[in-house]
Design goal:
Leucine-rich repeat, LRR (right-handed beta-alpha superhelix), binds 2-acetamido-2-deoxy-beta-D-glucopyranose, 27% strand, 13-stranded parallel beta sheet, single chain, alpha/beta
Length: 767
C-alpha cells in the first residue's frame, strides 16, 4: 500500500515536473520567437529606409519567411537570432534605420560599397556583440559616436571613404580588441591622440587622406603589432619621432604628403626589417637616401620624391629582386662623371620593377647601355630635369612595356635611335630640351598608342616624318624650336585626335598649308609661328571648332584672311602678324565673342577696319604695319591714296602702343593672381599621362550613376578607382573623347580634361 502510495506520488511528481518542463519549453519558444520577431521587425524597418533597385536585391526579405533565409542575413546555428548582416555592394541608397540597434545578437555588420548617407545611428552602439563593422565606401556623414566604446568586442572598424567629420574620439582607445582601424578618406580633423597607442592589438591603422593636424605621436610606437601605418595626405607637421623608426613590426609605413621634416635615419632599414612599402614623398625630409633600405631584400616600394634629400644613390640596389617602384624624383641627389648613372645597372636585378623615377635631381652621367636590361615590366621611366649627357642607347628599344619615357631637360645629344620605334606601348615620349640632332626616325610612327610627343628644343633637322599620321590617339604634339624643314605633312593635319596643342613653331617649315587642317576638330592651340610657310590660309580652319589659339606669326602667308575664321566661335587669340596677307579684314571677325587678342601687324591689309566686337577694344587689336588700313569715318574714297592715311596709321600705332603697355600690365596682374590661386602642391604638377576612354569607363563603372558625384552646366563629375586603388574624380563633358590624367609625384593623380571652348582644367587630386 505504502509502496503503491509512494509509487503514485512518484508518478505525480514526475508528471508535475514534466508539466513544468513543458511550461518552461513553451516560455522558451515564446521568448525565442519574440527575439527573432524583433530581429525581423528591425530588418524590415531597416529595409524601409532604403530605396532599392529593381529588381530589388532584397526581394527575399518578406514578412512570410524567416529572416534567416533572407539575402545577406546570417543566423546562429539554431536559426534563432541574426548574427550577421552582409549587404555589401548591393547599391543600397538611403539612411541607416535606428532599428538596426535592435539586432542585439549581431556580430558582423558589413554594409560597404553602397550609397548609404546620413549619420551612424547611435543605436548601433547598443550592439555590444559586434566584432566586425565595415561601412567603407558609402556617403555616411556626421561624427563617430562617443558611445562606440560600448562595442567592447569590436575587432574591425572600417569606415574608409565616407564623409565622416569631426575629430577622432579619444574614447576609441578603449576598444581593446580592435585590430583594424581604418578611417581613411574622410573629413576628420584635429590631432591624433596619443591614447590611440592604448589599442595594443592594433595591426592596421589607416588615417590617410583626412585633414589631421599636429604631430605624429611618438606613443604610436607602443603598438607592437602594428603592420600598417598610413598617415598619408594630412596636415601633420614636425619631425617624425625616432621611436616610430623602431617599430619592427611595420610592413607599410606611409607618411607622404604632409609637412614633416627631419633627417631620414640611415638605419631605418635595419630597424624596420619587415618593411615592404616605404612612402615618404612630398614632405620636407633632409639627409641622404637611407642605404639600409637597399638592404631590405623583400622590399617592393621605395618612394621619397619631393623632399630635400642630398648625397648620392647608396649602393645595394642590386639586392632588391621584388622591387616594383623606386621613386627618388625631385630631391637634390647628385652623381658625377660618365658613370654617374651606374646605379641603374644594379636595378637590372629587380625583375618586377615597373616604375622608376629619378627626375628633378642633380644626376650627371651617361645612360648606361644596360638600361635595356631593366625589368621587362618597366612601364614608366622618368629621368628628366637632370644633367644626363651622351647618347640614348639603342638598347632602350628592349623595354617593351614602357608607356612613358621622359628624358626632357637634360643634355642628351646624338640622334634618336631608330630602336625607339620598338616601344609600341608608349603613350608619352618626352625628349624636350636636349641637344638631340639628326632627323626624326620614321620608326617613331610605329608608336601608335602615343598620346603625347614632345621633342621641342633640340637640334632636330630634316622633315617631319609622314609616319606621324599613324598617331591615332595623339592628344598633343610639340616639335617646336628645332631645325625641321620641308612642308608640314598633310597626315599631321589629319590627326583628328589632337586636342591640346599642335606646336611646330620656330622651325624652317615651308610650303603651303593643306585644306586637311579641317580634321583638327578637337585641338585647342595651333602654333605654326616662325616658319617659312607660304600660300593662302586655308578656309577650312573653320572646322577646327575647338580652336582657342591660332598662332601663325612670322611666316610668308599671303592672300586674304579667310572670312570663315569668323565661324571658329571659341577663338581667343589670333596672331597672323608679320606675314604678307592682303585684302581687307573680314567683318566676320567681329562675331568672335571670345576673341581677346588679335594681332595682324605687319601685313598688307587694306580697307575698312571693322568697328564691332573685338575691334571696339583698342587694347586687344594690333594693326600697325598695315599702311592701307583705315577707320570708317576717315576712309578715303580710294583706299590707296596714302596722304590722309598716315594720320590714321600714326593714331593706330599710338593706340597700339598704349594697348601694348596695358596688355603687359594686365599680364603682370594675371600672373600675380595666378600665383595666388594655385597652391604650391599644384605648382609641382610635373607628369602628364594619358588614360584611355576604356580605362576611364572601367574606373567609373561604365559611368555608372552610382559614381556620379554631381552634375550641372559644367558637365558631370564622376568618381572612380583606377588600378592600384588610385582614386580619381573626373569631370565629363563628352565621354567619347580622351582625357588627360595628370600624375603628380608619388602617384597622387588628378584629371585634366582638355576640350574647347574651355581649356584644360584640373578636377581633383587624390591618392
Ligand atoms: C528556408 O527556405 C527553405 C526553402 O527555400 C525552407 O525549406 C526552409 O524551411 C526555410 N527556413 C526557414 C528557417 O524559414
Ligand atoms: C527597436 O528600436 C526602435 C528604435 O530604436 C525602438 O523604438 C523600438 O522600441 C525597438 N523595438 C523593439 C521590439 O525592441
Ligand atoms: C571592408 O570592405 C572593403 C570592400 O569590400 C574591403 O576591401 C576591405 O578589406 C574591408 N575591410 C576590412 C578591414 O576587412
Ligand atoms: C552612452 O552609453 C552610456 C552607457 O554606456 C549611456 O548611459 C548613455 O546614455 C549613452 N549615450 C547615448 C547618447 O546613447
Ligand atoms: C592607456 O591605458 C592606461 C591603462 O590602461 C591608462 O592609465 C592611460 O591613461 C591610457 N593612456 C591614454 C593616453 O589614454
Ligand atoms: C584643414 O585644416 C586646416 C587647418 O586646420 C584648415 O585651414 C583647412 O581649411 C582644412 N581643410 C579642409 C579641406 O577642411
Ligand atoms: C628603439 O628600440 C631599442 C630596443 O628596443 C631601444 O633600446 C631604443 O631606446 C628605442 N629607441 C627609441 C627612440 O624608442
Ligand atoms: C647592409 O647589410 C649588411 C650586412 O648585414 C651590413 O654590413 C651593411 O652595413 C648594411 N648596409 C647598410 C647601409 O645598412
Ligand atoms: C644581382 O644579383 C646577383 C645575385 O643575387 C648578384 O651577384 C649581382 O651582383 C647582382 N647584380 C647587380 C648588378 O647588382
Ligand atoms: C632640309 O634640311 C636637310 C638637312 O639640313 C637638307 O639636307 C635638306 O635639303 C633640307 N630639305 C629641304 C626641303 O630644304
Ligand atoms: C604682334 O605681332 C608683332 C609681330 O609679330 C609682335 O612684335 C608683337 O609683339 C605682337 N603683339 C602682341 C600683343 O602679341
Ligand atoms: C618630363 O620631365 C620634365 C623635366 O622633369 C618635366 O618638366 C615634364 O613635365 C615631364 N613631362 C612629363 C609628361 O612627365
Amino acid at each position: 500500500m505504502a509502496s503503491l502510495a509512494s509509487q503514485s506520488m512518484h508518478f505525480g511528481l514526475v508528471a508535475l515536473l514534466t508539466y513544468f518542463k513543458f511550461l518552461l519549453l513553451i516560455q522558451c519558444v515564446q521568448s525565442v520567437s519574440l527575439s527573432i520577431i524583433t530581429d525581423k521587425e528591425a530588418l524590415i524597418s531597416f529595409k524601409s529606409q532604403l530605396s532599392l533597385l529593381t529588381p530589388s536585391p532584397l526581394s527575399s526579405w518578406n514578412q512570410d519567411s524567416s529572416p534567416c533565409n533572407w539575402t545577406g542575413v546570417v543566423c546562429n546555428i539554431f536559426g534563432r537570432r541574426v548574427t550577421g548582416l552582409d549587404l555589401s555592394g548591393l547599391r543600397l541608397e538611403g539612411t541607416l534605420s535606428p532599428h538596426i540597434g535592435n539586432l542585439s545578437f549581431l556580430r558582423s555588420l558589413q554594409l560597404q560599397n553602397n550609397q548609404l548617407r546620413g549619420p551612424l545611428p547611435l543605436q548601433i552602439t547598443n550592439l555590444f556583440r559586434l566584432r566586425v563593422v565595415n561601412m567603407s565606401a558609402n556617403k555616411l556623414e556626421g561624427g563617430i559616436p562617443m558611445n562606440i566604446t560600448n562595442l567592447v568586442e569590436l575587432e574591425i572598424l572600417d569606415l574608409m571613404r565616407n564623409q565622416i567629420s569631426g575629430t577622432i574620439p579619444e574614447e576609441l582607445s578603449r576598444l581593446k580588441n580592435l585590430k583594424v582601424l581604418n578611417l581613411a578618406r574622410n573629413l576628420l580633423w584635429g590631432e591624433i591622440s596619443p591614447s590611440i597607442a592604448n589599442i595594443s592589438l592594433l595591426n592596421d591603422l589607416n588615417l590617410g587622406t583626412n585633414n589631421l593636424t599636429g604631430t605624429v605621436p611618438s606613443d604610436i610606437s607602443r603598438l607592437k603589432n602594428l603592420k600598417i601605418l598610413d598617415l598619408t595626405i594630412n596636415n601633420l607637421i614636425g619631425s617624425v619621432p625616432s621611436s616610430i623608426y623602431n617599430m619592427s613590426s611595420l610592413v607599410y609605413l606611409g607618411l607622404a604628403s604632409n609637412r614633416l621634416w627631419g633627417r631620414l635615419p640611415s638605419d631605418v632599414g635595419d630597424k624596420l626589417p619587415n618593411l615592404l612599402d616605404f612612402n615618404f614623398c612630398i614632405n620636407q625630409f633632409t639627409g641622404t637616401i637611407p642605404g639600409s633600405l637597399h638592404n631590405l631584400t623583400n622590399i617592393q616600394i621605395i618612394r621619397m620624391a619631393h623632399n630635400f634629400l642630398e648625397g648620392t644613390v647608396p649602393p645595394g640596389l642590386g639586392n632588391l629582386p621584388f622591387l616594383e617602384m623606386y621613386n627618388i624624383g625631385f630631391n637634390r641627389i647628385v652623381s658625377s662623371g660618365d658613370d654617374g648613372l651606374a646605379f641603374l645597372t644594379s636595378l637590372t636585378n629587380s625583375t618586377r620593377l615597373s616604375f622608376l623615377a629619378i627626375d628633378g635631381n642633380l644626376l650627371e652621367g651617361v645612360i648606361p647601355e644596360s638600361i635595356g636590361s631593366l625589368s621587362k615590366e618597366l612601364s614608366k621611366l622618368y629621368m628628366g630635369g637632370n644633367r644626363i649627357f651622351g647618347k640614348i642607347p639603342k638598347s632602350i628599344g628592349r623595354l617593351r612595356s614602357l608607356t612613358l619615357l621622359n628624358l626632357s631637360y637634360n643634355a642628351v645629344s646624338g640622334e634618336i635611335p631608330v630602336e625607339i620605334g620598338q616601344l609600341e606601348e608608349q603613350q608619352f615620349l618626352g625628349l624636350a630640351g636636349n641637344q638631340i640632332s639628326g632627323s626624326i626616325p620614321n620608326s617613331i610612327g610605329n608608336l601608335e598608342k602615343l598620346n603625347q610627343i614632345d621633342l621641342s628644343g633640340n637640334e632636330l633637322e630634316g622633315e617631319i616624318p609622314s609616319t606621324f599620321g599613324k598617331f591615332h590617339r595623339l592628344l598633343s604634339m610639340d616639335l617646336s624650336n628645332n631645325r625641321l624643314n620641308g612642308s608640314i605633312p598633310k597626315e599631321i593635319l589629319s590627326l583628328g585626335s589632337l586636342s591640346t596643342i599642335l606646336n611646330l613653331s620656330n622651325n624652317f617649315l615651308d610650303g603651303r598649308l593643306h585644306q586637311e587642317v579641317q580634321r583638327l576638330e578637337n585641338v585647342v592651340t595651333i602654333d605654326l609661328s616662325n616658319n617659312r610657310l607660304s600660300g593662302d590660309i586655308p578656309s577650312s580652319f573653320k572646322n577646327c571648332k575647338s580652336l582657342e589659339k591660332l598662332l601663325m606669326a612670322n611666316n610668308m602667308l599671303s592672300g586674304p584672311i579667310p572670312s570663315t575664321l569668323g565661324e571658329v566661335k571659341g577663338l581667343e587669340v589670333l596672331d597672323l602678324s608679320s606675314n604678307q596677307l592682303s585684302g581687307s579684314i573680314p567683318s566676320d571677325l567681329q562675331d568672335l565673342q571670345a576673341l581677346r587678342s588679335l594681332n595682324l601687324t605687319f601685313n598688307n591689309l587694306q580697307g575698312l577696319i571693322p568697328t564691332g566686337g573685338v575691334f571696339r577694344n583698342f587694347s586687344s587689336v594690333h594693326l600697325e604695319g598695315n599702311v592701307n588700313l583705315c577707320l570708317h569715318l576717315v576712309c578715303p574714297e580710294n583706299a590707296q591714296s596714302r596722304g590722309r592715311l598716315v594720320k590714321i596709321y600714326i593714331s593706330v600705332a599710338i593706340a597700339a602702343t598704349i594697348a601694348f603697355i596695358l596688355l603687359i600690365a594686365m599680364l603682370i596682374i594675371v600672373r600675380k593672381n595666378k600665383g595666388k590661386i594655385i597652391p604650391a602642391s599644384e605648382l609641382s604638377i610635373k607628369k602628364l599621362q594619358m588614360i584611355s576612354y576604356e580605362e576611364l569607363r572601367q574606373a567609373t563603372g561604365n559611368f555608372n550613376q552610382e559614381n556620379l558625384v554631381g552634375s550641372g552646366s559644367f558637365g558631370s563629375v564622376y568618381k572612380g578607382y583606377l588600378r592600384e586603388g588610385i582614386s580619381i574624380a573626373v569631370k565629363v563633358f563628352d565621354i567619347k573623347k580622351n582625357w588627360i590624367l595628370e600624375e603628380l609625384p608619388c602617384r597622387v593623380w588628378s584629371f585634366k580634361k582638355c576640350e574647347a571652348p574651355k581649356s584644360c582644367e584640373i578636377v581633383d587630386i587624390m591618392l
